[in-house]
Write a structure and sequence with these properties.
The chain is of the alpha/beta class. It is about 35% helix and about 20% strand. It has two domains: about 80 residues, no CATH class; about 300 residues, 3-Layer(aba) Sandwich (Aminopeptidase). Strand 9 and strand 10 form a beta hairpin. Helix 8 crosses helix 14 and helix 11 crosses helix 14.
Length: about 425
Amino acid sequence: MIAKKSTYAEVICSSAIHVDHVGAFYNSFHLTNYDWNQKSKKPEEPSKDEKDFDDRTLRHTKVLDGFQVSHESADLSNNTILKRQIASAEATVFARNLSCTRGTEACPGYMEDRVRELCDKHKELVKEVRVIKGQQLLDERMGLFHAVGRAAVSEPRLVMVHYQGDPESDQTLALVGKGITFDTGGLNLKGTGYMEDMYNDKNGACAVIGALHGVLATKPKINIVFSMCFAENSIDSACYKPNDIITSRKGLTIEIGNTDAEGRLVLADGMTYVQDHFKPHTLIDLATLTGAVRIALGMETAGLFSNDDELAGHLLASSKATFEPLWRLPITDEHRELMMTPYADMNNKGKTIYGGSSQAAAFLEKFIEKDVKWAHLDIAGPAMTKSAKGPVSADGNGFGTHILLDFIWKTQK
């Protein structure tokens, strides 16, 4: 890390460093020098990143105003790897800034506005921005999604951005992110020591937005639907209750075993809508879904679940190519049975505390159409960390952005 007061850095890499490694250096260097805070002392001159985004959020983000990297014996001006690493770093910063913005400010409406602002800068690349919110969710039979956010002041909403990088292809990739902007736990209220960090419960959606940022910067030849499921799991007289039975868009009835198992509810309806309307061949969802995955894998590794070995292999390869580790976990018949209830098609809470992340994945699996390749990334551990471990920053750190972008770049035509 460079000195805190430094605002500009220029690095010349020696010829001993392979030219393809320069991009990785740039990416890590840039992200290691990231620090988010909202201290009252403002910088004298806003950085480029601040000018490009909402000043209320970014004015206290520590990033380099200028950073250039060159190579002693190679021209980097047309180096694709470097360009992608720069785009990935900037996309991750974008995701981190959203992740760290606190719950009262970063409500569902705020998050929609940030997505729209990003798309407005690249209108020629965006085929459609579609938003379904409030009563419209019920009109579209998304009862689970609506129930989670109906007690909040800012209405729950499904925000979708259709990027069409290959108009000649009928193949579409769907990325779906859990965006619970603050999670009280609902009537199954979280206790002190557990609730405070729940502005980070939107980090799956933030990673999807980060991937959108990187795609708009690099224009890959691929069609992608970026879908963000935004809701605040709040409490008032309108909130949903334990043991309610709610019908999903897919038609499955869900008994609410715990109002704090809300992320899988918004994802279930969100994924169903995306599959119904955009017919993706592959769907990847990201979510800070379970504390159980932290117990299984620790705080630096995310859990990967998939119904397709080839897709899982590609994501594991992208994980190894970045500093965002994944480990594949199973969904077995035991996990599926544990989500059953005699009173509805499923319960949103398993029958035991054991294998909680696999039980949650088994719940999501029920909402995937049989011909769709699917992967679920439970990022609850690494997406929110207490201390920096460069290039990973403290707090919400945009985990998943690098994996998604690397996967997209490698699978495009």
